[in-house]
Amino acid sequence: MLDALIDSIEQKKAHLDRLRPLSAAALAQLQKHYDVELTYSSNAIEGNTLTLRETAEVIEHGVTVGGKSLRDHLEAVDHYDALLWMRELAATTTPVDDNVVCELHRRIVARSQPEIAGIYSRNPRRIAGSPVVFPNPAKIPQLMEDFGAWLKTAPTTPASAFEAHFRLTAIHPFGDGNGRTARLLMNLLLIRGGYPPVAVRPEDRKAYLDSLERASLGEDVAPYQTFMHQRLDATLTDYLSALQEAFPQSDPIRPPHART
Questions:
Q1: Catalytic residue among 15, 105, 165, 172, which?
Q2: What is the pLDDT of residues 167-215, one digit of tens each?
């Protein structure tokens, strides 16, 4: 199944490459749409109660949504700002390492939890209801240094992007915001590789967390890699459809089994 997904992704990526270079104006509109969705979905998985529309209103117009907490609002603004910074970084050749991870985290919680922003936790970290045990806090600095060294040489492939996400969540270096940081790091590597960023939707939460837990317990990493490749494949389909609407003169989208 994973091999078939990888083949489908490669074909759709080749189609996307044929559409480049894209109109800057049209691309900006498309990115804005996806960035709001990425912010909404990544926060919603962690318990933020803002809807997609409310997230857009907070980000685009600074609207205060009645009945929603201040923290929900701040998390939306923080994540969106961190995402924009991530996109700027993805467009450069700056090496990605543990310092970049810390900066991503700092920005993700800059307003909502400034006291932990970019700082490794000195306390045990646990996820309620999960049997996963994270590394001793004393080991975090060395684990993150080793992780940063790996990141510097990791290829910008989907498999590496998903592995980076998994490795960071397995270390779980921060007191909060680990999942949001891991998803932005993953998307940083995907964008550098020429792929669209992937959103893990709220409806995917159980499958996503179950696959991460299974991998963290050392049982099997395949379900996690399969799940993330499925999300990338679906995202590429949506992305190409959106581009087809924006650029109707471009090549028609080929079915997954077609060869390029």
A1: 172
A2: 999 999 999 999 999 999 999 999 999 999 999 999 999 999 999 999 9
Dihedral pair phi/psi, residue 224, rounded to 5° = -65, -50
> What is the CATH topology of the domain spanning 26-246?
Fic-like fold (1.10.3290)
Q: Which residues contact 255 (CB under 8 A, 6 or more apart)?
A: none
In one-letter notation, the amino acid at residue 114 is P
Does residue 231 contact residue 199 with C-beta atoms inside 8 Å? Answer: yes
Contact 59, 33 (CB under 8 A): no
Catalytic annotation present for 172: yes
Instruction: Report d(CA 254, CA 217) in Å as an integer.
Output: 39
- Domain spans in the chain, listed from the N-terminal domain onward: 26-246
Contacts of 31 (CB under 8 A, 6+ apart): 87
Quote the pTM value.
0.91
